[in-house]
Every structure is written in C-alpha cells, then in structure tokens.
Design a protein that fits this description.
The complex is a heterotrimer of chains A (about 260), B (about 325) and C (about 300). With about 260 residues, chain A is of the alpha/beta class. Chain A is built from ten helices and ten strands. Chain C has one domain. Helices cover about 70% and strands about 5% of the residues of chain C. Classes of the chains: A alpha/beta (about 260), B mainly alpha (about 325), C mainly alpha (about 300). Chains B and C meet through helix 5, helix 10 and helix 12 of B and helix 4, helix 9 and helix 11 of C.
Chain lengths: ~260, ~325, ~300
C-alpha cells in the first residue's frame, strides 16, 4: 500500500437497475492533492461522491481510505474517519443559524457527553466554548463572520455555498469532497471561491476532490484532473493533457462549456 | 453551586404550593391543574421526537401506558409494603410515600424508556410515515395486551393504586422535562436532533449518527411519557386501558403541533389550552366536543405553524424584542 | 380443512371491505401525502346515510334488490358530497402548510364527524334494517356463504374495477396519476390540481360509503364511533400494501381481513385488534415500503 495514496477507488461499479452510473472506475488521490473531477451532465460525478461518502454502497469494487476499506459503511462513520463533503444542491440546516450549521458538523469532536449537557457542568461549558470558537474561526476563514447568527436560508446564495464549505471543514476532514462549489456563481465570484479553496487546502493541510461541470473553473487550481463520461473515466492527467485530449473534446462537444448554471440545478 | 441553589428554590416553591394550593382552590380546579401538569409533561416530551427531531410518533399513549401500569404494579406489590414498614418504623407519611412514589415512577419511566428504545430501533430502516405507523402499531399492541392480561386488571381496569402523587411531584416532573428539553436543545446533542429534522442526508454525511440520535430522542421522550403515566396512575388511583387509546396519542400530537413544532413553551401553552378547553366547555354539554374539534380545525387553518411557530417565550426573547424595537 | 376454508371465505369478505376503505386512504395519500384520519368516519356516515335512506324507502318491510341498490347509491352520493365539502372547507386551506398542520386538521375533521354524529344521531347504536334478508348457500365441503357475503364481494369487485377503469382509462384518472406523480409538473401541463384533489376525495368517500352500507348489511349495529377502528385498520392495510399504490391497498385489505379472521378463529378474539399491527410491523421490517410499494431513494 502506497502511504501517499489517501483515497483509492478500486474498480468500482455503481448500478441502478439497468443503468450503470459508474463503470469500473479506478481513481487514486494522493495526500495533499487537489484533484478535479469533471465531465458533462449526467456523467456520474456526484455518484462517485455518493459511494465514497457512503450514501450508496458500490455494487462492485472497493473504496479505500488511508488503506482501509470504507465501502458500505454508513455516511456518518465515513465522516468520522475524515471524509466530508458539500452538496451540489445546497443542503443546509434550514432552521438553524450559520454558527449552528458549522457546530452540527463538528459534533463528533465534542468531548462532553449527554450527561454533561444535562448537568450543564464545567466540562460541558468548556467544550461548548471551544467548539464555538472553532466554528467562529471557520466562519471567519470563509468570510461569513457577519452572518454567524443569521438563519442559513436567509443567506445570499453565494454565502450559502461558502457555508457549505465551512460546515464540511468543521468535521476536521483529511479528505474534502466539493460538489460543484461554484455552481450558480458568476465568473468573478467563482474565481474568488477557487482561490479561497486553494487557501483552505494549504491552511488545513487538506486533500480535496473537486467536482466541476465547467472545465475552465478547475483548470486554474487543479494540477490533476479526471474526466468522466457516461460513468467511464475517459481521461486523467494535467490540465494541459486534458485540454488537448480528443476524447474529452468529443465528450464536451455540443455542450456549452461556460454557461453559468441556474440555481438549484 | 448556583444550580443546587436553583434546585433548592424550586423544591421549596413546589413544597409551599403543594401545601397552599389545595386550600386555595376547590378540588375540581385542583384536578384540572394536575391534569394540565401531566399533559405538559406528555406534550413537552413528545416535542422531543416530533418537534426537535422531525420524526413522527403516534404512539405516545403506549409509552404512557407502560409507565402507568409499570409504576402502578410496582406500588401495588412492592411500594405499599415499603410505606407500611417505613411508617411503622416512625418515618413521616409524606417522606415514606414520596420515596415509594419516586421509586415507582422511576420503574415505570425506565420501562417506558426501554419500550422507546425498541420502537426507535426500526428507524434504521423505516422513514417518515412508515416509522409513524410502527409507533401507532406499538401503541395499539400495548393497549390490546393490557386489555388481555389478567394480572393488570385486563378490561376491568386496575383499581386501588395508592394516590401518592400530589402537586409537588407533578410540578417537579414538569420542571424536569422542561429543563432536560432546554439543556438538550442548547447542546451538541440537541443540535444533532435539529440537523436530522432539517436535512437527514446532510446530517448523516457530516458525521451525525442519525439512527443513534433518533433512538435517543425516542428513549428520552418515552422516559418522560412513562413518568407522566406514572403520575397519572398515582393521581387517579385507577387505570383503564381505554385511557390509552390512539386518541390519547392524537391529543398529545395536537398539543405539540398547535404549540408550534420544536417550541418548548409552545408545547406547554398548547397542553394547558387543550386540557382546559374541554373542561371550560363542559357547560356546553353535547356541543363540547364539536366545538373543540371545530376550534382545532380553525386554529390549524389560521395558524398552521402553531401558536408560537418554533419560537420560545422566555425573558431572553422579550429582551431581544425590546432591543430590536429600539434599533 | 372445511373450517379453514370457511374462515378463508369470511376473511376475504371482510378483507374486501377493508380494501374499499383503504383505497380512499391510498388515493388521498398518493396525491396529497396526507393521512386523512377522517376517512374512517366517512365510512360511518355511509352506514348512517344508508340507514336513513332505507327507512325513507321503507326497504325493511318491503325489501327489493332495486331498493337496496338505491340505498347504496344514495349513501355513496351523500358521502361523495361530504368528501367534497370536507376537502374544500378544511383541507384546501392547509394544503400549503406543513404536513403536520394538515394532519392535525384531519384529526379535527375526524373528531368533528364523530362528535357531530353523536349530536345528530345520538350515542346509542342503531339497527340497520334488513334490506336483504340473509340466506346461506352451501358451497360444498362444509363451507357456506351467505347471500350478503356474496353481495359484499361482488359490489366490492364491481367498485374496484370501476375505480381501475376511471384511473387508467379516463382523462380525469390520468390527471390523477399525473398529480400524484408530480403536482407541480401536472399544474404546468394545464391540469387543475384543485379539481383533481376534490375529485379524489369524492371518489374515496364514495367507496368508504359503500363499505359502510355493505358492512351494515352483515353487522347491523351502527353507531357514530364505529368508523374509528376499521378506519385505522384500513389505513394500516393501505400501508401494508404500499401506501399510494392502488393494487397495494386491495392486497393489503385482503391480507388484513384474512389474518384477522384467522386470529379470531384460531387464537383468541380478544387479540383481533392487535394482529393488524403485529402483521404491519413484521411486514414493514421486511419490506420497509410495504408489499407492493417501491422504496424511492432520495436524490442527493
């Protein structure tokens, strides 16, 4: 086992009824990498996230995280091992404020138990304070400090996308999966966000797998890109290699590559 | 230290009220007051499942029945003996009865909590309405079992339960369920429950063991439902399976929804309202339940989010309102 | 063996009544995701409307098949109207509110019908007139069936096929399917969702009314609270079959009826009410979405 490989997707096939959403996928992600996963609509990108994070169990194949098989575990168990994610169709905790959203995701790092919470003892107070401080720090990193007490759904759209990332960071992941974090943002916002993602990666020594529909967005920050089409990995390599790969060009042919996508799509 | 002082204060106030109220109020008002207290415990505890966690239980009467019959059986067969022994040994009546009642209530509540654990377990596989139906089924099965088991009086009912529950104990149970709910709400565990309500898939993906927390909500909630049942048994001195039909569960759900899902103060308010209302309408005789049901419909149409939505009435809330008004 | 067959005949008869009621639950649920708790009370009203119609037609003293049919139809029409009024007055205003608000409204409607029934009809049981005098027919092997049972079975079958025809082959039925699949898209396609919802309530209420009259033929004691338990169990039957699924409701109703009759026959009549729920829990643990229901995973 190569210790530099953090995540290995080992020949995974994901089948829904008659449809093979992902077929025989092999993918390795090294520690500290920022890898882009791109492909046209319906290529199976989000499905990859779903079986890595345990939303689905792969039909065939293994998923190894830090050398240990995690396929078939329940999502919360995988999150606890250090894999967290954001959602393409923003799934914030609607009734809670931004800070609570982050706190919820930090929940398995709480040291005070249920009895401490019910007794409101010192251990609970200290734990709670520590968690709040860290939540506020994360909100700061993502530029959300002024929104800390605002209900998540009352946030402007771009801020909601950032809150998704802050929340995913709260679980102290080693691998962060970002599902189209720039969807619905305008070109400037999306460039800003990409820079922020790169900062976050360095600051927290993270490994990131980033799904993006729009090739151009990821070209700037990912040094390695994998391309999916109809569930099959058709190319993998540096942005330059991907740009000139005829199969990639063919897959994207007829697709308007740079159209900003509507909210919620 | 501060907490102990608070507890002492609460015990003192309850003790005094327990002495004063029966003299100030006529027995009928006293009875309504006691029933209100029991309703509050039921509503606030169900709010943990239906309000906090967003799951849907229609079996609360079943948990209440487990607590009621469990504690009553304990008192009849064990507790009453303890009280006789203690009193003959010179212990004061209130202390002897209080001790026996406390143990009986704990027995009933723990039994109910175990039932809650068993009912919560299928939440691993069942979602939404299907889980709701399992809770409904549980409630009905419990009732049919009680109706058929001779040792607990079957369809004749269970008479002769010592009437040890007084205002002090009901008040203490109300304080306990409210404090536990509030502290839970403001802790990481409560936030996990809210997360499940808002988006179960996201909660799970971010490390919340949703099954464990749903089961936890069921266990705590049914513990207090059992407590309410125990108090009811030791106040009423008589139990009948018909007190625990699914209409009783429905009544408690109505309280929680009417109060505003997730709002503790809303549950309290609605529990009192829905307990007092049928009593206040007593003079309307046959029309009573017709008016009651019409009001339920009209309230739901005009205030679909419940009386308080998911807000809380508290000093804190009033303060914030005032400062918001100033700004 | 003959006893078992006899139980089976009784179970299927009883189950077809559950199926008729369960259909109303399942149709409303399919379209609104609402558990219409008042549905069992519509079944009760059906029996009472039939009772009054029979008295008006003097069908007890001078019974004829034509009068019996008239009794059945008038109960169905009256309950159809009740269904429309119920939907328009109580459920439509809360349709955009939370599902729980709608549920509490349904509970309110249920309590209103029960207590209104007590107020209008009195709390004491009434006796449904014998509009079809009972006669037993031997089926061989020691199994008998009454003409009333035959009537229950055949009317249920006719109604189920009528419903099937409406849902599968009429414009309104196709619109119902569309609304059930996706109300928003259906509305965009020009379907009046309001009309379809009202129609669904009417249809369900008519079936429940028929069930009420049919049951009253066999068990003539009718009272305002008679709908609670059958309503609850028919709902469970709908869940058993897979709620929202029309064949599922029929299957669930039959399973429930047969299981209940067998428990009464072979275990103990006092456990009759529990069996429905034990069955339910066991089946749901094996098939979390009911027998014919499909478990739809949420899209992430």
């Amino acid at each position: 086992m190569n210790p530099d490989v953090l995540l290995e997707v080992d020949r995974v096939t994901m089948q829904f009824g008659g449809l093979k959403a992902v077929a025989d996928l092999q993918l390795e992600i090294g520690r500290g990498e920022l890898v882009g996963l791109i492909g046209p609509n319906g290529a199976g990108k989000t499905t990859v996230f779903n079986f890595v994070t345990g939303v689905y169990a792969p039909t065939v194949g293994r998923v190894l995280f830090e050398g240990r098989a995690i396929q078939g575990l329940r999502p919360h168990a995988i999150a606890k091992r250090g894999v967290t994610r954001t959602f393409q169709n923003i799934r914030l905790f609607a009734s809670r404020c931004c800070r609570d959203n982050v706190l919820i995701a930090a929940h398995h790092h709480a040291t005070a138990g249920l009895s401490d919470a019910l007794l409101r003892n010192r251990r609970f107070a200290e734990d709670e304070r520590g968690m709040r401080d860290r939540a506020d720090e994360l909100l700061g990193v993502m530029g959300l400090t002024e929104w800390a007490d605002t209900r998540a759904t009352e946030l402007p759209y771009g801020q909601q996308r950032r809150l998704e990332i802050a929340r995913a960071l709260a679980g102290r992941p080693r691998l962060l999966l970002l599902d189209e974090p720039a969807a619905g943002l305008n070109p400037q916002e999306s460039e800003q966000l990409m820079r922020l993602i790169e900062d976050v990666r360095r600051r927290f020594e993270l490994t990131i797998l980033l799904i993006e529909h729009d090739m151009k967005v990821v070209m700037g920050i990912c040094r390695r890109i994998a391309v999916l089409d109809y569930g099959i990995k058709i190319a993998e390599g540096t942005p330059d290699q991907i740009r000139s790969d005829p199969r990639v060009i063919e897959a994207y042919l007829g697709e308007e590559v740079t159209v900003p996508r509507a909210k919620g799509s | 230290m501060k907490q102990l002082a608070g507890l002492a204060l609460i015990l003192g106030v309850l003790g005094i009220l327990n002495f004063v109220l029966p003299q100030a109020l006529n027995p009928y008002f006293m009875r309504v007051l006691m029933l209100c207290g029991i309703s509050v415990v039921l509503a606030v505890s169900l709010n943990l499942i239906n309000g906090f966690t967003g799951q849907f239980s229609i079996g609360h009467a079943g948990f209440m029945a487990v607590g009621a019959y469990g504690s009553a059986m304990f008192s009849l067969h064990v507790g009453a003996g303890w009280v006789r022994t203690l009193e003959s040994a010179g212990a004061p009546e209130a202390a002897a009865q209080g001790l026996a009642l406390l143990v009986a209530l704990m027995v009933g509540s723990v039994l109910a909590a175990i039932a809650g654990y068993l009912v919560g377990l299928p939440s691993l596989r069942l979602r939404g309405d299907y889980l709701a139906i399992v809770t409904l089924g549980f409630g009905e099965i419990i009732r049919v079992i009680i109706t058929n088991v001779d040792a607990v009086g079957a369809a004749r009912g269970l008479p002769g339960i010592p009437g040890w529950a007084n205002f002090f104990w009901v008040g203490l149970a109300v304080v306990a369920v409210v404090v536990v709910s509030r502290r839970l709400a403001n802790s990481t565990h409560g936030r996990a429950l809210f997360a499940i309500r808002d988006d179960e898939i996201a909660a799970e993906a971010l490390g919340v063991d949703t099954t464990r927390y749903k089961v936890l909500a069921f266990v705590i909630s049914s513990f207090f439902a059992g407590l309410a049942g125990g108090l009811f048994a030791h106040y009423n001195a008589y139990l009948h399976p018909n007190s625990f039909t699914f209409l009783k569960s429905i009544e408690v759900i109505a309280m929680v929804v009417l109060g505003g899902l997730g709002s503790i103060s809303g549950s309290i308010l609605a529990a009192i309202l829905l307990t007092v209302l049928p009593e206040a309408l007593r003079s309307a005789q046959e029309l009573r339940m017709v008016i009651y049901s019409l009001m339920l419909i009209v309230l739901m149409i005009t205030r679909p989010g419940g009386l308080l939505g998911n807000r809380e009435i508290s000093l804190d809330f009033l303060r914030r309102r005032r400062s918001a008004g100033r700004a | 063996m003959s006893e078992f067959l006899q139980q089976l005949v009784n179970g299927v008869t009883w189950g077809s009544v559950y199926a008729l009621i369960a259909l109303g639950y399942t149709m409303v649920y399919g379209i609104l995701r609402l558990i219409n708790f008042a549905h069992g009370d519509v079944y009760m009203l059906g029996a009472f409307f039939g009772f009054f119609a029979a008295r008006f037609l003097n069908a007890a003293r001078d019974p004829s098949p034509f009068k019996a049919l008239l009794v059945l139809l008038s109960a169905m029409v009256a309950c159809g109207i009740i269904g429309i009024v119920m939907e328009r007055a109580a459920y439509k205003p809360v349709r955009r509110s939370s599902r729980l608000a709608a549920l509490i409204t349904a509970i309110g409607v249920s309590l209103l019908l029960e207590n209104g029934g007590i107020l209008l009809f009195g709390p004491d049981p009434k006796f449904f007139p014998q509009i079809i005098p009972a006669r037993n027919i031997a089926l061989g092997m020691g199994v008998t069936i009454s003409n009333q049972q035959i009537l229950i079975l055949s009317v249920s079958l006719v109604l189920m096929f009528a419903l099937r025809f409406i849902v599968l082959h009429t414009r309104t039925g196709k619109a119902m399917q569309a609304v059930s699949y996706n109300p928003m898209a259906a509305a965009l396609m020009g379907i009046s969702v309001d009309r379809i919802v009202t129609f669904t309530f009417m249809l369900g209420s008519m079936l429940a009314a028929a069930a009420g009259v049919l049951v009253a033929l066999q068990n003539p004691k009718i009272e305002p609270l008679m709908g609670i338990m059958p309503g609850l169990k028919a709902f469970v039957a709908a869940v058993l079959g897979g709620i929202g699924n029309i064949p599922g409701a029929v299957l669930g109703g039959l399973v429930m009826g047969i299981a209940e009759v067998l428990v009464v026959g072979y275990v103990s009549p006092t456990y009759r009410d529990a069996i429905a729920f034990v069955l339910l829990i066991v089946i749901l643990l094996v098939r979390p979405a009911g027998i014919l229901g499909r478990n739809v995973a949420e899209k992430v």
